[in-house]
Write a structure and sequence with these properties.
Number of domains: 1
Order of helices and strands: EEHEEHHEHHEHE
Number of strands: 7
Helix content: 25-40%
Number of helices: 6
Mean pLDDT: 91
Low-confidence stretches: none
Radius of gyration: 16 Å
Length: 160
């Protein structure tokens, strides 16, 4: 099935350059999209505030999700609810610059961690809270979805 996916930024995206991606994000270094247009709009507005230049721009991509069953792609899909596995995965990726953690997935789909994630991850890493509490604390108040594309093979699945 062809889905529309949205990327919010302070600049128009004409081509995807994975080397421009930031590390220590929920699912690692890669290109992030959502199937929720309002979420992409909010991200574009946030990016303009953070960067102090540009204007909110949402770039639309088409994605044939039947490729998720393609054996050439290594795909991880988390349920639309947070759980301990998701929380551990986010924690590992958010600390990857310190630990060197990398995962084998081309595409990862799952919930967005709450904006206060750094504080909660610190509490978990210090042993103050357990993994179930971390998962509950990281849950986004309005459950949003993100699509991570981390390899050129994955990026090739997106059409503008």
């Amino acid at each position: 099935m062809i889905k529309k996916l949205f990327h919010g930024s302070n600049v128009a995206i004409t081509s995807i350059d994975l080397s421009m991606s930031l590390i220590d994000k929920d699912f690692g270094k890669g290109f992030y999209l959502t199937d929720i247009e309002s979420q992409a709009v909010a991200m574009a507005q946030r990016r303009v505030r953070i960067m102090s230049h540009g204007e909110p721009i949402v770039t639309v991509f088409e994605f044939d999700d039947s490729c998720l069953a393609n054996s050439d792609l290594n795909v991880k899909v988390f349920p639309d609810v947070v759980n301990a596995e998701w929380a551990e995965f986010v924690n590992a990726n958010r600390n990857s610059s310190q630990t060197g953690f990398t995962h084998p997935f081309d595409i990862v789909i799952g919930p967005v961690a709450d904006d206060g994630v750094a504080y909660q991850l610190e509490r978990y890493n210090e042993g103050v809270i357990d993994i179930k509490t971390l998962a509950r604390e990281l849950a986004y108040r309005k459950l949003n979805r993100q699509y991570f594309f981390g390899t050129e093979k994955a990026i090739a699945q997106l059409k503008q």
